[in-house]
Amino acid sequence: MARSSPTPPHRTPIRYVPVTLRGEEIGYLWAPATEESGGSAHYERRLGAAGDSFDAAVIWATRMGEESKAGRSPMEALHRWVGTPEDPLAGGIAEDAADRFATSYEALTEMANPGLADPREIMEWPASPPMDAPSRDSASLEYPFTTEEAVCYLPVVREASGDIVIGYLWAAVSDDAAGYYSTSEAGEAGPAAYLMWKSRLRQARCDGYSPMCALRYWIGMPEDPAAGKIPADAVERRASGLAELERLAGMR
Question: Would the pTM of this model clear 0.85, i.e. be above it?
Fold first, then answer.
């Protein structure tokens, strides 16, 4: 009998609060609406905001990772930051901020950044993007997901999964492509990690990072409950192409 799987976060109702910087909403801290949904709290950037920055996303990701390690539920983590002093980069959440409701993560994404929610993600949640995925009008905001060139890659691990490699973050050596592949050992952690790394790569692209800089930026950063981490001592390796990396990840 087929094993039932939990409802993917992108189909689960969420609650969120606005993060402001100097009076402007620069993003949203969000969490699953019910404790049964599990998961953790996350930060969604508002890319059109004047005060938006990649640094803000890193700060909030680090904070939520620490909250999760402390054993707090997603909603507890979210509410702990309401009314705290505004950070000059990450902003803050007003003391009188009330919870807002969205039917799904994609609904929040569409509200924060109209036109960036991918309809394919609403219908399906792949462990890795299809190699023949068509380009979109918002392609300038994302690295291409495929390349014919050699790629460099780094392992992504997750403590909750026993530090096994749950995926590989990769970047093309000589063109503008970058992406993330889940490994066959990632299991149920794979889809959530894929979604988080895709969001991080989008952030890096919007902030002008080259693919190789984006690849190396996250080395040694604190672990995110969904995305995992790239260990500080991770060794950057090179593959002749994506086909070789797919075989390594167990996709072929």
Answer: no
pLDDT tens across 189-245, in order? 788 888 889 888 887 887 778 899 889 988 888 888 788 899 989 999 999 999 999
Number of CB atoms found within 10 A of residue 191's CB:
21
